[in-house]
Amino acid sequence: MPVTQASSLSVSYPTILPQVQQGGIGEGGDQRLGGMKAEEGGGGIQRAFTPKTTWERFTSRLKHGWEGAKFDTDQGASQAATRFNARHKEFSGKVESLVSRLASGKNSDVSDPDMMATLRNDVKVMHRNAPWASRTDLLSSRMDVELGKLSDDQLTEVSKQLASADTSRLTDKDKVDLQTMQRAVLRQQLARSPEMGTMLGTINHGAPSTVTERNTLVGRLTGLNTQTTQSLTGLNIPARGGNDDIVSGAISIALKRGGYTPAQLGGMNRNLLNVERQLCLDRPLTDKGEVPEIASFQPRMRMLGRAVREEFLQNNVTTFKDDNLRSRMKPIGSGAAHTVSKGEYHQGGGEVSRVHKYDDEQLIHPDGGRFGAPAKLGIDQSNPKLLERAVFTSKLDTRLGFNVSVGTDFARHQDQTGIVMELAGGKTAKDTVGVTGNPGVAQKELMKLQLLDIITGQADRHGGNYLVQTNDQGVITGVKAIDSDFCMGPEPDDASKIVGRHAVHLPGMPPVIDTDMAIAIRGLSDDDVARLCGDMFDDATIAAAKSRLGKLKGHVTKLEQTPGGIIRPDQWGTKEVTEKLENTTVRVGNKDVPTSYWQRDHARMERPFDPFAELGIS
């Protein structure tokens, strides 16, 4: 896998499990079960679209409520819903009862191997409904729910009872489950500690602006980890993964317990983004002359940033979450950095198809090492935050009225934040052949895409990252940008500075645009850019985007002073415009670089269709 997908850091969950409600779920399922089928020996309730595929609409049942998952009203569906709810209710009730007894001073249950074996079997049953989650995480998650209900004194009592449990008759697996419970208690205690409150209060009120203040914040985070290590040592529990499951989970719990508003979470996210970048800039450059990655010297600060970011982004998810998912996620392909899937969501009065992409914990090139394009933009590839860049591109496209990128929104699937994108017809530019007819629409749409990419500083718009739509006669009718996440870095402040550089696919500044495009660019203000960015980016990234917009506006002024630089929208495809697009280049180093996507790609798209070449036969 070229990309390590991020695990959710959110561990604050509902206290009661809602019940499945009856109702319609749409078409495509087995009508005997209202669109569902139950496979008792395999994975619990499953979709009937394809064999042995988990129905992912019921994901995160332990961790999230739902507003009413829908079944058809026939008897089979009701029975399936009843079985499903019974499993979860029984498991939740057992953990609730166990925690209640421990809080009242009784540890005999966790010293009983039969009881522990029964609990482990219940977790196995739950794992059938959530196969993507480890069994340890399932138990830990439910413990978080019940422990979160306790007072501080009750939590202390649970900790005492677990620590004093008689383990002489327990198996190794029993001891692992016991340690899982103890780690959950430590997570809750750390979330409620004064040190946690002080640290979160610091980033809630502003970004530490001096080296001393930043070092103090790092010290507080290190202190939380040290406190965790000491507690684990005292309980003879081995550390696991640098204690990240405890510290990061505690941060998420504390954020939810703190009752922060979406605006406060956004401010905390942006504050940490600024701290992260400044910490990197405080360090010497690497041997390659690059700003060091945050994970290389401050992995815990990266962890804190991701925990806050997770809470912030969840507030931006509305429609596209598992409660509204109406099909399984079907893998449809992968690129250099991503594997994508397709699913159906309930929206408004109907269902919509969306392409889903997970978040990226870090970027690792398939050939090893890092990607070239993000490096040119100053994107930290150990903590890339690409979701925000793709969503911003979609928002900016909408604001400009260009309509040349797929609509993109934040999403939650299987307890992970990601994005969903609209489905767009057509083929990628590199796979498009046999284009004929007047090139006017292609020139116009590709120029809008180029202007969009200049503002975002998009470095990766090669022929595989936009779709070309054609009619039956082979005439291009539109283009749609996809994979728009290698952009919006803190560098460059002028898009022309990266043109011609290795791994960068952005052409030079355009030789011609039309009047509508000029109006749209001039109508976009710095305040518009800041508003669209919100709290998704650090100050340097927002400032760079504003600067690129300013440079583009300056170029528009130059085009107005150049004969044929600004044309009417109906002049695309004329001989004069085509010649200007095809013949204007910019000199970068010792090579001539195209100044438009049209110049770069049109010849390839106009090559005749060759069925043997398409089949890989020479």
Could you explain how this protein is built, in words?
The structure is a single chain. Helices cover 44% and strands 13% of the residues. By secondary structure, the chain is α+β, with helices and mostly antiparallel strands. Among the domains are: 123 residues, no CATH class; 179 residues. Strand 13 and strand 14 form a beta hairpin. It is elongated. This is PI3K/PI4K catalytic domain-containing protein.
What's the helix and strand layout?
Blueprint: E1 3-5, E2 21-22, E3 36-39, E4 44-47, E5 70-71, H1 75-103, H2 113-129, H3 135-147, H4 152-163, H5 172-191, H6 194-204, H7 211-234, H8 244-257, H9 262-282, H10 299-314, E6 330-334, E7 339-347, E8 350-358, E9 360-363, H11 372-377, H12 386-400, E10 408-413, E11 416-422, E12 427-428, H13 440-456, E13 466-470, E14 476-481, E15 513-514, H14 515-522, H15 526-533, H16 539-560, E16 566-567, H17 575-583, E17 585-588, E18 591-594, H18 597-605, H19 611-614
Parallel strand pairs: 2-5, 15-16
Antiparallel strand pairs: 1-9, 3-4, 6-7, 7-8, 8-11, 10-11, 12-13, 13-14, 17-18
